[in-house]
UniProtKB/TrEMBL annotation:
Phylogenetic classification of the source organism: Eukaryota, Fungi, Dikarya, Ascomycota, Pezizomycotina
Organism (species): Paraphaeosphaeria minitans
GO molecular function (one): mating-type factor pheromone receptor activity
Biased composition (Basic and acidic residues): 334-349
Swiss-Prot/TrEMBL keywords: Membrane, Receptor, Transmembrane, Transmembrane helix
Protein's name in the database: Pheromone receptor
Length: 381
C-alpha cells in the first residue's frame, strides 16, 4: 500500500488518489471537483435561460402575428429559429445528465460508461446547431432582400452577393466543425487539436452577422433620412425596424466576442439565442404599430405617442379602435465551452388621429359620459 498523502493545510484543496481503469493510480484534488461543480451549475443556468427565452418568444410570436402574415417566409424562418434554438438548448442540458459529465469521466478522461444513445444526443445537438445557423442566415438574407428591393439592380446584387458569400463561408466552417466534432464524439476524443478551426468558425459567423446587420441598418437609416427630408416624420414600423436592427447588430456582436473570453466560455452560445430573439421581436413590434393609426400618425412628436397613447385618446378615437389588435452546442463536450475543453397593415387615413404634444388634449364631456355608461354596463354584466 502506498504511503498516505500528508495532511494538507487547507482541506478544501486537499489532494486524493484515484485509480485508472488499468489499475494505475493518479492524483486529483478538491479544486478540480469544485471547478467541475461550478462549471455544471453555470452551464445549466445558461442553457435553461435560453430554453425559457426561446419558448416564451415563440409563443408571443404565434399569438401576436396576424393570421394573414403567418404564411410569410420571414415568419416561418423566425419561428423555426426559435424552435430549433429551444431544442438545441434542451439537448445541451441533457448532456449534463449523461456519463459525459460524471466527475470521474471528466477527471480521468475515461468514457467507458457512455452509450451510443448518449453519443447520439451529442451528434444531434451538433447537427441541429448547423441547421439553426443556416436558418438564421436565411432569415437575415430575406430581410436584406426586402430592404434592398428598391435599390438599383447593380447595387442590389452587389449587396446580396457580398452578404451571401460571407454567409456561405460561415456555413462552410460550421459544417466542417460539425463533421469533425461528430467524428470525435464517436471516438470519445476531444476537439483540442482543432481549436484553431473552431476559432475560425466563430470569427466567420460574427463577420457574417455584422455584414448582414450593417447593410440592413444602413439601408433603413438612409430611408429614414430621406423620409425626414421629405417631412415624413412618422414613428412607425420603419423606425422600429431601424431601432431593433441596431440592437440586432450590436448586441449579438458583443456576445460573439465573448467566444474568446475564457473566464465565461458558456456565454458564447448566447450570441445565437440573442439573434433568434431580436429578429422576430422587431417584426412583432413593427406589426403592432403598423396596425395602430394613432401610433403611426405623422408629426414631429409622433415618437412620444407610443407611450402617451397608452394613457389618453384623442377626441376622434373611440374605444373600439383597438379591437383589431390581436454553438454551437457541442453536446459532445469536446469544444472550448465544454468541460473537456478545460484542457482542455389598416392603412392610415388621410386624417391624422394622432395626439400632439403641442396641443392641449382632454376628454370631452360626451366622451366621458359614454365612457361612464360603458363602465356601468360592464359592471352590470
Amino acid at each position: 500500500m502506498s504511503d498516505p498523502l500528508p495532511r494538507p493545510e487547507d482541506v478544501y484543496s486537499q489532494e486524493f488518489v484515484l485509480y485508472a481503469p488499468d489499475g494505475s493510480q493518479f492524483t486529483t484534488s478538491m479544486i478540480e471537483i469544485d471547478w467541475l461543480r461550478h462549471f455544471g451549475v453555470r452551464i445549466a443556468i445558461n442553457w435553461a435561460t435560453q430554453i425559457g427565452a426561446s419558448v416564451t418568444l415563440l409563443l408571443v410570436l404565434l399569438l401576436l402575428t396576424r393570421r394573414d402574415k403567418r404564411n410569410s417566409s420571414i415568419f416561418i424562418m423566425n419561428a423555426l429559429c426559435l424552435a430549433l434554438n429551444a431544442i438545441r438548448s434542451i439537448l445541451q442540458c441533457v448532456y449534463l445528465t449523461t456519463p459525459y459529465f460524471h466527475p470521474y469521466a471528466v477527471i480521468a478522461n475515461n468514457y467507458a460508461h457512455v452509450t451510443p444513445a448518449h453519443r447520439g444526443i451529442s451528434v444531434a445537438s451538433n447537427t441541429i446547431t448547423l441547421v439553426l445557423v443556416v436558418s438564421i442566415l436565411v432569415s437575415l438574407s430575406l430581410q436584406v432582400w426586402v430592404v434592398c428591393i428598391t435599390a438599383k439592380p447593380l447595387q442590389k446584387w452587389i449587396i446580396i452577393g457580398g452578404t451571401s458569400i460571407t454567409a456561405l463561408v460561415a456555413i462552410g466552417y460550421r459544417f466542417a466543425v460539425m463533421i469533425i466534432s461528430n467524428k470525435q464524439t464517436l471516438k470519445d476524443q476531444s476537439m483540442e487539436a482543432y481549436n484553431g478551426l473552431v476559432d475560425d468558425m466563430y470569427i466567420t459567423f460574427a463577420v457574417s452577422v455584422w455584414a448582414y446587420c450593417a447593410v440592413f441598418t444602413f439601408k433603413l437609416g438612409h430611408a429614414l433620412l430621406e423620409r425626414k427630408r421629405l417631412r415624413m416624420t412618422q414613428f412607425g414600423p420603419m423606425q422600429i425596424i431601424f431601432i431593433m436592427g441596431c440592437q440586432t447588430m450590436v448586441i449579438p456582436a458583443i456576445f460573439t466576442c465573448l467566444n474568446f473570453y475564457d473566464s465565461v466560455p458558456e456565454l458564447a452560445s448566447q450570441s445565437i439565442t440573442v439573434i433568434c430573439i431580436f429578429l422576430p421581436l422587431s417584426a412583432i413590434w413593427a406589426g403592432l404599430v403598423a396596425s395602430d393609426s394613432n401610433v403611426g400618425g405623422s408629426g414631429p412628436d409622433s415618437h412620444q405617442r407610443l407611450f402617451k397613447n397608452e394613457f389618453a385618446r384623442s377626441s376622434s378615437t373611440t374605444y373600439g379602435d383597438r379591437s383589431h389588435l390581436t454553438d454551437n452546442t457541442f453536446g459532445s463536450g469536446k469544444e472550448p465551452e465544454s468541460p473537456r475543453g478545460h484542457n482542455y397593415h389598416q392603412t392610415k387615413d388621410s386624417v391624422d388621429n394622432g395626439i400632439y404634444m403641442q396641443k392641449e388634449w382632454h376628454v370631452e364631456a360626451g366622451e366621458a359620459g359614454e365612457a361612464g355608461e360603458a363602465s356601468e354596463a360592464v359592471r352590470a354584466v
